[in-house]
Structures are given as C-alpha cells and as structure tokens.
Amino acid sequence: MIYGTFAAMWVRVYAREEYGDSYFNYQLLPQKSVNSYKRFLLRATMGGSSIDEATIRDVLAHEIVRDLDIEIQDYQPVIVYINGEYWGIHTLRDRIDERYIEYTYGFNKDSIDMINANIALVDAGSNLHYKRVAEYIDQNDLSVDYNYEYVKSQIDIHSLVDYVIAEMFLSNWDWPGNNQKLWRPQTPEGKWRWIFFDLDVAYSRTIPDIFDHAMLEEGERPWNTESVSSLLLRNLLKNNNFRSLFIDRFAEILNKEFTPGKISGKLNAIMDQYRPELSSHISRWNYPSSTTSWENDIENNLLDFLMNRPCEMAKQMINYFDLEEFGYKCYEVNDPPECFIVAPNPSSGQFFIYNNSANEFLGYLLITDITGKIVYFEQDVTLAHYERKYYDLSRLSGGSYFIKYVTDQRSSIIPIVIL
Description:
The protein is α+β, with helices and mostly antiparallel strands. Among the domains are: 2-93, no CATH class; 340-418, Immunoglobulin-like (Sandwich), CATH 2.60.40.1930. It is 32% helix and 24% strand. It is built from 10 helices and 16 strands. It has helices at 57-64, 98-105, 128-139, 145-152, 157-169, 210-214, 228-236, 240-255, 260-285, 291-321, and strands spanning 2-4, 8-14, 39-45, 75-82, 85-93, 112-116, 122-124, 181-185, 193-195, 340-343, 350-355, 361-369, 374-383, 388-392, 399-407, 411-418. The strands form 4 sheets. Strands 1-2-3-5-4 form a 5-stranded antiparallel sheet. 32% of the residues are buried.
C-alpha cells in the first residue's frame, strides 16, 4: 500500500501467507537484532510547500534522540526497484504499531494499548486506562505531591520528560497536537511510554517560544484536541518535584546527547550514507534539485539550526522558569566547546575534519603515530565555518594516531584510531 502527504511518501510492505511467506525472515534494520518482520515501511521525503530539500530531517531527528528514554523508528537507507523500475533512495523504517512493541519489548501484540495525540484515537487495545488518568488529572491538583505520585504510578515520567525535551529541542511544528503516540502493556503495573516519530516539519524557525507551543490547550489549533503531552505537561509543571526533574534533565541532555559536536558528527555520518546514490535519485525524481542544493540546504538550515539550538533552549529555559542559573553554559562564537571534530572515529583511514564553529581557520595540519613520527603533513589548510575537509589515509597501518591542527587562534590535538 502506498500512502503520502505533502512532506513524505511511504509504502507499507506486508508479509502474508497467500503471497508466499508469513514473515520477512531477515535483519532489515542493522540497529536491531530482530530478524523476523511481519511488515515494514519504505519512506521517502518528497518535499512540499513548507519543506526544503534536506530529505533527511526525520532520520536525523531519530538519530539525535537515539539515547533518550523513548521509542524511536530505526532506519536503513535502501535503493528501491519496483518491477525492475528504479524508484531511488528510500529509507526502510519500523512501522509503529502493536507488532513493533512486541518485537521491541516482548509483550504480546494483543495485550497492548496504544493511542495517538488525540486521546480518542486508538491504534491498539483501548484508551480507557488513559481516560481514567486524564480524568484524575482534571479533578486533582498535581502541585500536591500525593496526586503527582499517583500520576507517576500510571505513566513513565522519565519517558515523558525525554519525549517532551526531544520535541521542544527539535522545534516540531506538527506537535503536540499531532505526530505522537504512546503505549502501555495491559498489566496492573503497566505505565504509558512515548513513541517518537514523523519529524519532517521539525527544526522550525517559526516558533518563537517553544513553551507556548508545547502547552497549547484544546481548541487553540484546529487539530489540537485533547493533546496528550500538552495535557500532562501543563499540569505536571505545577509540581515542584516535576519542575526540578524537568529542568535538571534538560540541562543533562544539552550537555550530553545534544552537544553541537555530537549532533554534527551524526549529521555528517548520515549525509555520507545518502550522498553516493543522490545523483541517480535526483535524475529519477528531480528532487532535490541538485546535490549542491541538498548540501547547501542541510548546512544553511539543519546544521545552522542545530548548532544554535542548545543556547536558544537554555535562554528559553531560564526565561520560562525564571532561573538565576541553568546547568548549561553557552559559549561565545569565538570560544566553541568543541571546535574541530574528526569523524568517523575509529575509521578505515577515510575520515573528515569538521570545523564546528562560526570562525574560519587557516593553519597547518600534521598527523603522527604514537611514537611521534609524522605520517602526514599539509600546509595552509583552510577550514571555513561549518566546513568539512576529507582525508584518505587508508594506506596507514591500523593503530592509534594524533591529528594536530595549528592556527594563529588555537592549537588542537585529536586522537584517532585507524582500523
């Protein structure tokens, strides 16, 4: 079955006995050890009135939040042929349904509740449990710790916090009234957890205050009816313990998972996966318009947004919670925390050096082995802001090396491993 929106097109692929096999017995997604699937998605971003030419927005978002306490859609770029006809680059994805929960967590697919952003939209099981939770929240003041503790016994509070932080950081315009799912096992102790998906209209610069956006109430948008995370966040923030948890966790994630260096490394790795096939894909679909426009759009929109987002979020946190201090330090442009990044590392000897700052640098670069012997030297190496420079040193023996880049402004030594 083929489905689509103005932003994306996806194909649902089913295994059924009448077609031959009841399951796809193959490890479709390298991030998972699962080797038997009933169904999966082939997804392609095709652009639209509010979408640019990056094509990797959703994939990048999932990779950025991979280490958070939420469920995500794993991915694998693939080249698709249908009846021998070339259909270009698609991304093979999990289909988020009860079977996804079954093979991810081991719960029987028939003993799972799953609802959508609107509480009334049931994807699996029933919404009765969550309706009772929502009624309790409506009738009880969550600033009272006893009431807060009851809500914590019904929802996975850490999953909710990580989910909200992910959506806020990535500035998803199509949230909270849309594009969210949550699930629970139908057990006495089963708690609701959040599923992260569909970030094609994230990285939005049109949301001036993400807190206002995140807590829109029913009726404030045509599709924002009984928004699940909005209902919870508005009420939970009345509780001092939750506020402290939320603030501390946001600072922790900004310092760990959402650092500019870590994000830019993931972005560059994803680009390297898609780039080799992009020209053929463009010839088939005329989208993106060119490889250059694809790279420029990623640099000027995605990368620029993500490099500035941690400080922007820190400012909004301080403003919203009226904080005297917040556990994330914003660096000035001339003093970035991680100026030069090498990726992938370890590598086979093919890697790039990335200038993770708004400055341009000119200097010399040398690479030494662990004995100090120089194995590579290059004079007058220029790195513009947010530029990558590629190297192929696969001729070197496997082992540990050191890259030294010396400019008038700074000197950096970066250890690398060649396999």
